[in-house]
Design goal:
This protein is of the alpha+beta class and 99 residues long. It has helices at residues 2-21, 41-52, and strands spanning 23-34, 61-67, 78-87. The protein has 2 helices and 3 strands. It has a 3-stranded mixed beta sheet, covered by helices on one side. The chain starts with a helix and ends in a 12-residue tail after the last strand.
């Protein structure tokens, strides 16, 4: 359950960022996995793929790195480092206006 909670929080933050940026889709995310988060990079990617189905982040590349110090602050957290987005296409010139 701990993993699902962490992923739900990450997905919520990604969605907020994508909406704020007017993104058509998220193309890449970078996360830092705490040593006590119970995630390996491959395990996180699997959970991310499932959690992102049907969302703006579906198909995004995931760069995940484990921070190995179990005594550091945030050792049990998953930290969203960056989100890359593809912006929605602007309306073509001349489209949508009255003639």
């Amino acid at each position: 359950m701990h993993e699902q909670t962490l992923l739900r929080d990450v997905m919520s933050r990604i969605d907020e960022i994508a909406r704020a940026e007017g993104a058509a889709r998220v193309t890449r995310v970078q996360v830092r996995l705490g040593a006590l988060s119970h995630f390996t990079p491959a395990h996180f990617r699997e959970h991310f793929e499932d959690a992102s189905l049907g969302t703006v982040a579906e198909g995004a590349v995931v760069d995940a790195q484990v921070v190995g110090d179990a005594t550091s602050a945030g050792a049990s957290e998953v930290v969203l480092e960056s989100v890359e987005v593809e912006l929605a296409d602007p309306e073509p010139a001349g489209a949508g206006g009255a003639a």
